[in-house]
Amino acid sequence: MMETEDSDLRKLLKEKDDEIERLKKLLTIKTPAVVEEKDIFVQSDDRPAVREKLNNAEISRYSRQLILPEIGVKGQLSISSASVLVVGAGGLGCPSSIYLAAAGIGRIGLVDYDEVELTNLHRQILHTEAKVGVTKSASAAHACKSLNSHVECIPYHLQLNSSNALQLIKQYDIVLDATDNVATRYLLNDACILANKPLVSGSALRFEGQLTVYNYDGGPCYRCLYPKPPPPETVTNCSDGGVLGVVPGTIGCLQALEAIKIAAGIGPSFSQVMLMFDGLDGTFRRIKLRGRQPSCPLCGTQPSITQLIDYEQFCGARADDKDKCLKVLDPAHRITVHEYNKMLETGSNHILVDVRTEVEMDICRLPHQPINIPINRIGQEESIATIQRRLTISEEKPSVVVVCRRGNDSQIAVETLLKCFKDSDLDIKDIRGGLHAWAKHIDTNFPVY
Amino acid sequence: MALRICLEFSGGAELLFNKTKKHEVTLPVCEKDWTIGSLLPWMRETMLKERPELFMQGNTVRPGILVLINDSDWELMGELDYSIKENDRIIFISTLHGG
Fold first, then answer.
1. With contact defined as beta carbons under 8 Å apart, do B62 and B95 qualify?
2. Which residues get modified to 1-thioglycine (chain B) (predicted)?
3. pTM, full prediction
4. Which of A224, A234, A276 to mutate to test the interface with B (most CBs of B within 10 A)?
């Protein structure tokens, strides 16, 4: 009896010892040191060592991809000698970098200037709740390193720009565009052409994603397809348009796949071909693209762009996807959330026009019963008639207060309404900073999205 | 003879066209052949309800919209000069930039 108990205890002790060993090992995986902008210029030009043989641990670890005849020992050695720069550690950069790490890419550079926010977590899946406020590059590098400690992960906490892009890109074999704005996309494209690196480009919004490989084996570059940047007002970011996490997740995984195929010497499937993914319809569509354009100012026969330019100026938009603060209205047509709160307290006679979409109205609304006219319908006859009707049923002439999420659309709406009601002396104002300001200054329990 | 074709929109371009991704349309009989060059103004007049500048600039699509003819980049098909044929599928894709 005693004997069996003794042996059970010994077994348990052994299990616990093993567990301690395992945890100790986990603890030794340190977050890789973050590289700041000034340091990229002093970094040496060393590459991941060119490997001639896989060791036993590597053979076991990568066995399931190693036995693929398209990969084999030669392919795995190429993968582990390759370096990939992932620009953007967000919805695309998280899934792509973790698969690159899992596959054993020799060196992974992760570039991001931003810190983790709660609104990122639904799609930027390497960042955890505990990492909110931490730099994204460090958080993603830590996740990659935890999955595969043999991979070298270098987090770069910096914003890629015309003065640092080439220096950084030169140090890598393949570049992934996992960014979120037009200016950085042109910058990355130009830098990859000038440094002659293949660029695996992904993008996603709402339920849709796009993927293509630029500058590979005579294929086109971003400028061959899009010689002129889009007008800034036609560009929607994830914060305004929304995005389902799995959609950039799907595109990010495919970016990793293309990068691994390039690294292994198989070559990509999406050079001069674009993949259009529609997650709502469940369709993947392959599109044949034009080849390299002889007239391209960057990669054509007589290039006029021979060095990096000012991309924010070129695109007329900032190189991030942060909220812009519009200022189109005269201060006389604006009130603060404090002033609006006072209007509510004193029972001031007014019509509240909320210009957000229907979906957003379901999330939250101000305590005063609003008329909902989404911003894209504000100038339409029907909308003006709705406001007119409300004006006429009121005995005393009310004022009109317009609100939106952040105080940008509300200004555009007031501008339009002022034109529509220019023959009346109607008092039309917007609430500065919109619902975000309301949540910050008046009602801290008000939801922010 | 009138031409029946399919127009599709994606990447947000559908938001300008009644939020509908797929439109089966019949182009009326015309003396000259229908081309993409004559289709675009026809679309602007008959289909586009508001803010045409978000779809067109001058006589062509605005920068940032890619046109496909039967799943091929229109650049390979003659762009504005392409002669439209019965049952052609013409797709207008707004480039995505998010991530």
1. no
2. 99
3. 0.87
4. A234
